[in-house]
Amino acid sequence: MITKVPEPMRYPRLFSPLSLGGLELPNRIVMAPMGTHYADLQHRVTDRLIAYHVARARGGTGLNIVEHTAVHPLGLTAPRMLAILDDTYIDGFRRLADAVHEAGGRIALQLQHGGRQASVQVIGQETLSPSAVPTGRDGRLPREMTVREIREAVEAFGEGARRARQAGLDGVEVHMAHGYLGCSFLSPHLNRRTDAYGGDLRKRTRFAAEVIAAIRKRCGQDFPVWCRVSAEEYVPGGMTPEMMQQVAVLLQGYGYCAIHVSAGIGETSSYASAPFLMPQGHLLPLAAAVARVVSVPVIGVGNLRTPARAEEALSAGQCHLVALGRALLADPEWANKARQGRERDIITCVQCNLGCLGKARDPEAGCECVTNPTTGHEAEWEDDALPPAEPRRKVLVIGGGPAGMTAAAVAARRGHEVTLWEQRPTLGGRLADLVCADRSGAFADLLGSMVGALDASGVQVLWQQKADWETIAAAAPDVVVIATGSRPATARESVVGGISGTVVDVLDCLQNPQRPLSHVVTILGAGESGCLAALHLARRGHEVTLLEREPLVGPRMAAGVQHFVARQLADLGVKVYTACEVLSVAEGTVTVRGSEGVLRSLPAGSVVLALGHRSQQGPAPEAAPPGLQVYSIGDCVEARTLHHAIWEGAQIGRTV
Q: Is 0.85 topped by the overall pTM?
């Protein structure tokens, strides 16, 4: 008899157990704490928050860390921020803990006081901080805390931990990162006190020491307590990795059982959730620096989205656990799929920050995800609760961009007979265009997973199909979903005086890197594709000028993405003119009018058009045969973001 030897696990470090302060974890995958705005207006746990965490626990995550939770009324940073202000909050957290445990997970709570970054509108008074250092976000000046107020905050952390333990949570993380109160005490930039809570490094860690002492007094020695820190603040006079190494040794000595290493303060918060322009694991060197000097586990974080990169970080000793944030927003089943060798099925986070941080689709909706419309809607949109197709109908989707692909896959999973027509020889629409502009590979991974979802759901794809009502009627569908997307805007639509001479479309420029261009290149339009083209050409040695009608580059990008785009453009010497109107391009010169009304002539060189998109109308719904159900979704309704396209595709796929 031949015994089959099991294949070795692909990610042995990622799926090895670890003890975190006595809490036994089945793997090294941690769900990073991320603000969701799912709490109610009394800052309490909701069913929506519970369903969101249960999905990640069922998905195989080793530990869920619940988002920053206010321990004091003056620490609230948003109207729907989670809080644990008194004992009446315990029952809500008990429901959350019980649900996660029932799903097979482990759950901890991040305790926080907003300090200088609390919301004046929410707390109703001035904010508090160790020192009166203005906040870079709005120039607001916090008030320096008195010793009595410091001790009150310390006690609030202790009481928050007690309530968390009483509710059945498995541990707490003390938030001492990102410019909030705990971070402000550690930071030499934010803490300029001269009393026992400021000055030398040990005094600046006194607050941290007193917080864990207050927790131990209430919760005992066996309750896991760790902290999150910013090892680099990216401001003059701020925390540095070398300084954090010294701080970490002290924090370990005070009794923190692990150190979760992040970066940034409020003014530089974009580093903590950096976009696709930054490499995977960009903050891991900070974790590695801390790991070299402490013996407790170190949690690393920073743009991690693939199991291979997470395994590499663990194997190299950069950290002992990996914290996934946006990757778990995109796919709650990330851990299960990685363990089962189904990496290609992982729904990819493209690190665009539109749905989670930017809330681009609906500012009131709370945290969502561009690539996974189920995020934040787990209670009503569970995959195993898709409404069955009753009756089963023939659904024709016209257009294979993100909206059409999503609608087709979801409708087919429900049991409909779905056919998708695509006029181009490839799927993806504007998403396929982004693939050629993105060096990170994230958009390519997303497109691959969407194509895979179509295949798995049994959608029939017919290529280079031109749709009119005659051909549609011949196919005899019951339902038609029009998702014909958008097309690039032309110079005639955007440039007042038009353009004479040869111009290059931005996508042609990106898709054909060997296309001859002059040394001087002028790009009209600083949207996502225009900015990426400018970076691409500047790296190849071109002298690039970027012109944009809006006041900022990347007007539809999330703020954090804008920051990195602007920084990289400046580093590469790209000349950027915003708030300017292009009047004409002729005889090697581009004429623009600035916001002050002044005309300026600039050398044009090769001209690249990146003027945005316009809706591309498909068959007119009003001309449809009688009795045929017709829906229009995505960019053909209005040229918007990838978030809108995928969301509307999922919505219509669930309802047809």
A: yes
